[in-house]
Structure formats: structure tokens, C-alpha cells
Amino acid sequence: MRKIQVQGVHHITIVGSTRQSALDFWEGLLGMPFIFEQPNLGKPDENHLYFDPGDGRLLTVFTNESRTDAGRPAPRKVGCVEHLAFNVSHATFTQVPARLKERGIEFLERDRGFMNSIYLQDPNGMKVELACYKFETPEGFRAADVLMRAYQIRLERGDHHIADEHLADAIEDLLATRDRATH
Q1: Is 110 within 8 Å of 117 (Cβ atoms)?
Q2: I want to staple 28 with a disulfide (CB 3.0 to 4.6 A). Which of 24, 54, 69, 168 is the partner?
């Protein structure tokens, strides 16, 4: 059987509470430009808000003015989304803790070996991650290329998780393959 080949994320849709709650969080806190809104054509009692998460694709939110913010952690069960992760620059990442503290928003900061992460919750308890890779992707490669090579190096060395040395060595290897291909 042949595969259906996807080419990236088209959009992500979440169930929100009110229009203003969605605007305040996605645009007001996270800076995602509000693109447009229209009725949810599949469920007439809902509105459908569209935001740009920074790469020109879409994050959409179903809203209904009769709902209120859940104000509790979203369920973490089989079949549920654990979290949504969004890329931020290193410069922005360093400013996130202070900006969240200014707004009284609780968060967790974690070192993930190959990236740094800050976790917070939207008004409905969905976990949102702000992530920043610890490396710059070399010209002509994708972040996934660096991570795949770093993973291979990590496995070859029997290490527990990807760390800075694996990333640096992966980038060196990728650049060497590019240099050999151009000579």
C-alpha cells in the first residue's frame, strides 16, 4: 500500500471559550497576529478565529460566547494533545520569564538537551510550550537534519540524550558532507 505523503502542518484548531479570551491569549500574550474570523461552518453556534503563529500557517480557535475559561489543566489521557509547541528566537526566549511574571502567569522552564523550553497554560488549561533550539541550522539544511544526525551520534556513543556536543558534531558532519558534495 502506498503512503499518503504529508508536507507539513496545515493548521491546528483548538476549542476555546470566548472570542476575547482567545484574542487576549493568542494575540495579546503570544503575539500571533489575528488574521480573520468567520462562523464555524460545521457548527453554527461557534465562531472560528484564525491566527498566524509566525510561519504563515494557521492556528485556529473555535469560540462560543456562552462558554467560560476552563481554568484547569487540560486532560492528559490517551488520544488527547499533550501540548502545542511554538518556536521563539533565543532573544525572545530570554525575555519570556520576565514577561510572564509581569502578567502573573505561572510557567516551568526546562533544558531539553537540544532545546530550551518554557511551558505555560492557555485560559482553558491547554499546555503551550515556547521552544528555542540550542543551535543555528546551517544553510542548506533543516533543523530535522541536525537533529537526526545528533540522534545517530548519541546512539553511537551510547549517551542518554542529545546534548550540546552531539549538536556541534552533527553540524560539523553535515557541513563536511556539503563541502565534499561541492568539491
Answers
A1: yes
A2: 24
Average pLDDT value for residue range 3-31: 96
Please give the mean pLDDT across all residues of the chain.
95
Question: Cell 488527547 maps to which residue?
Answer: 80
pLDDT digits (tens, 9 = 90+) for 46-59: 999 999 999 999 99
Closest CA to 50 of 77, 19, 76, 74: 19
Task: Kindly state the helix (H) or strand (E) to which residue 131 belongs, with its residue range.
Answer: strand 127-133
Q: Which residues contact 46 (CB under 8 A, 6 or more apart)?
A: 39, 40, 62, 63, 64
Pairing of strands 115-121, 58-63: unpaired
Taking 80 as the threshold, does the pLDDT of residue 75 lie above it?
A: yes
Q: Which domains does the chain have, with CATH numbers?
A: 9-67 (3.10.180.10), 81-134 (3.10.180.10), 143-182 (no CATH)
Q: What are the cell numbers at 58?
A: 494557521
